Amino acid sequence: MINPxxxxxxxxxxxxxxPVLVKWAPVSGISSAFYRMFxxxxxxxxxxxxxxxxxxxxxxxxxxIVLCGIIFGSDIAVWNMSIHYSNATQAxxxxxxxxxxxxxxTFLFLPDKPTFRxxxxxxxxxxxxxxxxxxxxxxxxxxxxxxxxxxxxxxLYATYMILSxxxxxxxxxxxxxxxxxxxSSAYLLIICLIMDQPLxxxxxxxxxxxxxxxxxxxxxxxxxxNYAVKAMDAKRVSLSLLSQxxxxxxxxxxxxxxxxxxxMIIGGVIILVGIAITFKKNKTVD
Length: 286
Prior knowledge:
This protein has helices at residues 4-16, 18-24, 29-50, 59-85, 88-95, 98-109, 116-133, 135-139, 145-168, 173-194, 204-231, 234-240, 243-255, 262-279. By secondary structure, the chain is mainly alpha-helical. The protein has one domain. The two termini are 26 Å apart.
Protein backbone atom coordinates (compact mmCIF):
# COMPACT_ATOMS: atom_id res chain seq x y z
CA MET A 1 0.00 0.00 0.00
CA ILE A 2 1.39 3.41 -0.96
CA ASN A 3 2.57 5.72 1.79
CA PRO A 4 -0.03 8.50 2.35
CA UNK A 5 2.66 11.20 2.24
CA UNK A 6 3.95 9.89 -1.10
CA UNK A 7 0.34 9.82 -2.31
CA UNK A 8 -0.03 13.45 -1.26
CA UNK A 9 3.12 14.42 -3.18
CA UNK A 10 1.80 12.62 -6.29
CA UNK A 11 -1.51 14.44 -5.90
CA UNK A 12 0.13 17.85 -5.57
CA UNK A 13 2.30 17.23 -8.63
CA UNK A 14 -0.74 16.11 -10.64
CA UNK A 15 -2.89 19.15 -9.86
CA UNK A 16 0.04 21.57 -10.18
CA UNK A 17 0.11 21.23 -13.96
CA UNK A 18 -3.49 22.46 -14.27
CA PRO A 19 -2.73 26.23 -14.48
CA VAL A 20 -0.10 25.56 -17.16
CA LEU A 21 -2.58 23.49 -19.18
CA VAL A 22 -5.14 26.28 -18.90
CA LYS A 23 -2.66 28.66 -20.53
CA TRP A 24 -2.12 26.20 -23.36
CA ALA A 25 -5.86 25.79 -23.99
CA PRO A 26 -7.80 29.09 -23.85
CA VAL A 27 -11.17 27.57 -22.97
CA SER A 28 -13.89 28.93 -20.69
CA GLY A 29 -12.96 28.15 -17.10
CA ILE A 30 -16.35 26.63 -16.33
CA SER A 31 -16.32 24.51 -19.51
CA SER A 32 -12.82 23.35 -18.62
CA ALA A 33 -13.98 22.49 -15.10
CA PHE A 34 -16.90 20.44 -16.48
CA TYR A 35 -14.71 18.36 -18.78
CA ARG A 36 -12.10 17.94 -16.08
CA MET A 37 -14.77 16.29 -13.91
CA PHE A 38 -16.64 14.47 -16.66
CA UNK A 39 -13.61 12.90 -18.34
CA UNK A 40 -12.28 11.72 -15.01
CA UNK A 41 -15.69 10.25 -14.17
CA UNK A 42 -16.20 8.34 -17.44
CA UNK A 43 -12.77 6.71 -17.08
CA UNK A 44 -13.23 5.81 -13.42
CA UNK A 45 -16.77 4.42 -13.73
CA UNK A 46 -15.91 1.35 -15.90
CA UNK A 47 -13.05 0.47 -13.55
CA UNK A 48 -15.16 0.45 -10.38
CA UNK A 49 -17.95 -1.47 -12.14
CA UNK A 50 -15.70 -4.14 -13.68
CA UNK A 51 -13.73 -4.64 -10.46
CA UNK A 52 -16.92 -4.52 -8.38
CA UNK A 53 -15.41 -1.85 -6.14
CA UNK A 54 -18.39 0.52 -6.30
CA UNK A 55 -19.90 0.56 -2.83
CA UNK A 56 -23.55 1.42 -2.29
CA UNK A 57 -23.66 4.15 0.35
CA UNK A 58 -26.11 4.02 3.20
CA UNK A 59 -29.01 6.44 3.13
CA UNK A 60 -27.18 8.62 5.66
CA UNK A 61 -24.08 8.89 3.43
CA UNK A 62 -25.82 10.08 0.27
CA UNK A 63 -26.33 13.64 1.50
CA UNK A 64 -22.66 14.39 2.33
CA ILE A 65 -21.55 12.71 -0.91
CA VAL A 66 -23.90 14.87 -2.99
CA LEU A 67 -22.86 17.94 -1.02
CA CYS A 68 -19.17 17.16 -1.68
CA GLY A 69 -19.84 17.01 -5.42
CA ILE A 70 -21.77 20.28 -5.44
CA ILE A 71 -19.31 22.07 -3.16
CA PHE A 72 -16.26 20.99 -5.18
CA GLY A 73 -17.95 21.97 -8.45
CA SER A 74 -18.98 25.30 -6.91
CA ASP A 75 -15.43 25.92 -5.73
CA ILE A 76 -14.07 25.55 -9.26
CA ALA A 77 -16.80 27.75 -10.76
CA VAL A 78 -16.48 30.46 -8.09
CA TRP A 79 -12.67 30.48 -8.35
CA ASN A 80 -12.88 31.03 -12.10
CA MET A 81 -15.40 33.85 -11.64
CA SER A 82 -13.17 35.47 -9.03
CA ILE A 83 -10.37 35.61 -11.59
CA HIS A 84 -12.77 37.22 -14.06
CA TYR A 85 -13.71 39.97 -11.61
CA SER A 86 -10.23 40.57 -10.19
CA ASN A 87 -7.00 38.82 -11.17
CA ALA A 88 -5.42 35.39 -10.88
CA THR A 89 -2.85 36.49 -8.26
CA GLN A 90 -5.40 37.88 -5.81
CA ALA A 91 -7.79 34.98 -6.41
CA UNK A 92 -5.05 32.41 -5.85
CA UNK A 93 -3.86 33.99 -2.60
CA UNK A 94 -7.34 34.31 -1.11
CA UNK A 95 -8.37 30.82 -2.18
CA UNK A 96 -5.22 29.47 -0.53
CA UNK A 97 -6.45 30.78 2.82
CA UNK A 98 -8.41 27.52 2.95
CA UNK A 99 -6.12 25.95 5.64
CA UNK A 100 -7.31 28.67 8.02
CA UNK A 101 -10.95 27.82 7.32
CA UNK A 102 -10.17 24.10 7.65
CA UNK A 103 -8.58 24.74 11.04
CA UNK A 104 -11.55 26.81 12.23
CA UNK A 105 -14.05 24.27 10.89
CA THR A 106 -12.18 21.39 12.50
CA PHE A 107 -12.04 23.25 15.81
CA LEU A 108 -15.80 23.89 15.74
CA PHE A 109 -17.15 20.64 14.32
CA LEU A 110 -14.64 17.79 14.67
CA PRO A 111 -13.09 16.13 17.74
CA ASP A 112 -9.53 16.31 16.35
CA LYS A 113 -8.70 19.91 17.29
CA PRO A 114 -5.87 21.86 15.59
CA THR A 115 -2.62 21.96 17.55
CA PHE A 116 -0.30 24.90 18.15
CA ARG A 117 2.07 23.42 15.57
CA UNK A 118 -0.68 23.49 12.91
CA UNK A 119 -1.42 27.17 13.50
CA UNK A 120 2.29 28.05 13.55
CA UNK A 121 2.84 26.20 10.27
CA UNK A 122 -0.21 27.88 8.74
CA UNK A 123 1.02 31.37 9.67
CA UNK A 124 4.47 30.63 8.23
CA UNK A 125 3.05 29.13 5.01
CA UNK A 126 0.57 31.99 4.45
CA UNK A 127 3.44 34.44 5.02
CA UNK A 128 5.34 32.58 2.30
CA UNK A 129 2.36 33.07 -0.04
CA UNK A 130 2.48 36.82 0.60
CA UNK A 131 6.23 36.88 -0.17
CA UNK A 132 5.64 34.74 -3.27
CA UNK A 133 3.13 37.13 -4.85
CA UNK A 134 4.78 40.28 -3.51
CA UNK A 135 3.88 42.46 -0.53
CA UNK A 136 2.87 45.35 -2.80
CA UNK A 137 0.33 43.14 -4.54
CA UNK A 138 -0.98 41.99 -1.16
CA UNK A 139 -1.61 45.51 0.22
CA UNK A 140 -3.19 46.67 -3.07
CA UNK A 141 -5.96 44.05 -3.04
CA UNK A 142 -9.38 45.53 -3.74
CA UNK A 143 -12.33 44.56 -1.56
CA UNK A 144 -14.66 44.09 -4.51
CA UNK A 145 -16.79 41.29 -5.98
CA UNK A 146 -13.67 39.39 -7.05
CA UNK A 147 -12.30 39.58 -3.49
CA UNK A 148 -15.50 38.17 -2.00
CA UNK A 149 -15.72 35.38 -4.58
CA UNK A 150 -12.11 34.36 -3.93
CA UNK A 151 -12.70 34.23 -0.17
CA UNK A 152 -15.85 32.20 -0.82
CA UNK A 153 -13.80 29.82 -2.99
CA UNK A 154 -11.40 29.22 -0.09
CA UNK A 155 -14.31 28.54 2.26
CA LEU A 156 -15.89 26.10 -0.21
CA TYR A 157 -12.55 24.33 -0.63
CA ALA A 158 -12.13 24.04 3.14
CA THR A 159 -15.70 22.76 3.53
CA TYR A 160 -15.01 20.11 0.92
CA MET A 161 -11.84 18.98 2.73
CA ILE A 162 -13.64 18.63 6.08
CA LEU A 163 -16.80 17.02 4.68
CA SER A 164 -14.90 14.61 2.42
CA UNK A 165 -12.82 13.49 5.42
CA UNK A 166 -15.97 12.46 7.28
CA UNK A 167 -17.21 10.49 4.24
CA UNK A 168 -13.84 8.87 3.53
CA UNK A 169 -13.72 7.58 7.10
CA UNK A 170 -16.58 5.26 6.10
CA UNK A 171 -16.08 4.70 2.36
CA UNK A 172 -13.34 3.67 -0.06
CA UNK A 173 -11.73 6.45 -2.08
CA UNK A 174 -12.69 5.13 -5.55
CA UNK A 175 -16.36 4.82 -4.62
CA UNK A 176 -16.45 8.31 -3.12
CA UNK A 177 -14.68 9.78 -6.15
CA UNK A 178 -17.08 8.08 -8.57
CA UNK A 179 -20.19 9.46 -6.91
CA UNK A 180 -18.66 12.87 -6.17
CA UNK A 181 -17.44 13.43 -9.74
CA UNK A 182 -20.79 12.29 -11.15
CA UNK A 183 -22.54 14.96 -9.07
CA SER A 184 -19.94 17.61 -9.95
CA SER A 185 -20.20 16.79 -13.66
CA ALA A 186 -23.99 17.09 -13.69
CA TYR A 187 -23.84 20.26 -11.60
CA LEU A 188 -21.21 21.97 -13.79
CA LEU A 189 -23.02 20.91 -16.98
CA ILE A 190 -26.13 22.70 -15.74
CA ILE A 191 -24.06 25.82 -15.00
CA CYS A 192 -22.49 25.67 -18.47
CA LEU A 193 -25.91 25.44 -20.12
CA ILE A 194 -27.37 28.25 -18.00
CA MET A 195 -24.39 30.54 -18.66
CA ASP A 196 -24.17 29.49 -22.35
CA GLN A 197 -20.57 28.27 -22.05
CA PRO A 198 -18.97 26.46 -25.04
CA LEU A 199 -19.04 22.67 -24.80
CA UNK A 200 -17.97 21.46 -28.27
CA UNK A 201 -16.35 22.41 -31.60
CA UNK A 202 -12.92 22.56 -29.96
CA UNK A 203 -9.68 21.96 -31.86
CA UNK A 204 -7.99 18.54 -31.42
CA UNK A 205 -5.21 20.10 -29.32
CA UNK A 206 -7.74 21.54 -26.90
CA UNK A 207 -9.51 18.18 -26.59
CA UNK A 208 -6.13 16.64 -25.79
CA UNK A 209 -5.45 19.20 -23.07
CA UNK A 210 -8.94 18.67 -21.62
CA UNK A 211 -8.27 14.93 -21.54
CA UNK A 212 -5.03 15.48 -19.61
CA UNK A 213 -6.86 17.73 -17.17
CA UNK A 214 -9.48 15.05 -16.59
CA UNK A 215 -7.12 12.07 -16.35
CA UNK A 216 -4.11 13.59 -14.62
CA UNK A 217 -5.26 16.70 -12.73
CA UNK A 218 -8.62 15.35 -11.62
CA UNK A 219 -8.60 11.55 -11.69
CA UNK A 220 -5.00 10.76 -10.72
CA UNK A 221 -4.48 13.94 -8.69
CA UNK A 222 -7.59 13.78 -6.55
CA UNK A 223 -7.53 10.01 -6.15
CA UNK A 224 -4.09 10.49 -4.61
CA UNK A 225 -5.14 13.50 -2.51
CA ASN A 226 -8.33 11.84 -1.27
CA TYR A 227 -6.32 8.76 -0.32
CA ALA A 228 -4.08 11.07 1.73
CA VAL A 229 -7.16 12.74 3.28
CA LYS A 230 -8.51 9.30 4.25
CA ALA A 231 -5.25 8.21 5.87
CA MET A 232 -4.02 11.53 7.28
CA ASP A 233 -5.19 14.64 9.06
CA ALA A 234 -7.32 16.82 6.74
CA LYS A 235 -5.73 19.97 8.21
CA ARG A 236 -2.23 18.87 7.22
CA VAL A 237 -3.38 17.83 3.76
CA SER A 238 -5.07 21.20 3.21
CA LEU A 239 -1.94 23.08 4.29
CA SER A 240 0.27 20.83 2.15
CA LEU A 241 -1.73 21.80 -0.94
CA LEU A 242 -0.20 25.28 -0.65
CA SER A 243 2.91 23.70 -2.15
CA GLN A 244 0.92 23.54 -5.40
CA UNK A 245 1.84 27.18 -6.04
CA UNK A 246 5.54 26.30 -5.74
CA UNK A 247 5.26 23.29 -8.07
CA UNK A 248 3.18 25.24 -10.59
CA UNK A 249 5.87 27.92 -10.74
CA UNK A 250 8.58 25.32 -11.41
CA UNK A 251 6.50 23.59 -14.09
CA UNK A 252 5.70 26.90 -15.77
CA UNK A 253 9.40 27.79 -15.73
CA UNK A 254 10.35 24.48 -17.35
CA UNK A 255 7.62 24.21 -19.99
CA UNK A 256 6.40 27.71 -20.86
CA UNK A 257 9.49 29.76 -19.95
CA UNK A 258 7.90 31.83 -17.19
CA UNK A 259 10.49 33.66 -15.13
CA UNK A 260 11.21 32.78 -11.51
CA UNK A 261 12.52 35.58 -9.31
CA UNK A 262 14.45 35.33 -6.05
CA UNK A 263 11.34 36.66 -4.32
CA MET A 264 9.35 33.69 -5.63
CA ILE A 265 12.06 31.25 -4.56
CA ILE A 266 12.21 32.70 -1.03
CA GLY A 267 8.42 32.68 -0.79
CA GLY A 268 8.32 29.07 -1.96
CA VAL A 269 10.90 28.02 0.62
CA ILE A 270 8.92 29.72 3.40
CA ILE A 271 5.75 27.89 2.29
CA LEU A 272 7.56 24.56 2.41
CA VAL A 273 8.99 25.36 5.86
CA GLY A 274 5.49 26.14 7.12
CA ILE A 275 4.22 22.82 5.79
CA ALA A 276 7.19 20.98 7.31
CA ILE A 277 6.44 22.48 10.74
CA THR A 278 3.05 20.75 10.85
CA PHE A 279 4.58 17.39 9.91
CA LYS A 280 7.42 17.46 12.42
CA LYS A 281 6.54 15.37 15.44
CA ASN A 282 6.95 16.83 18.87
CA LYS A 283 5.81 14.84 21.89
CA THR A 284 5.35 17.88 24.06
CA VAL A 285 3.09 19.63 21.50
CA ASP A 286 1.35 16.89 19.50
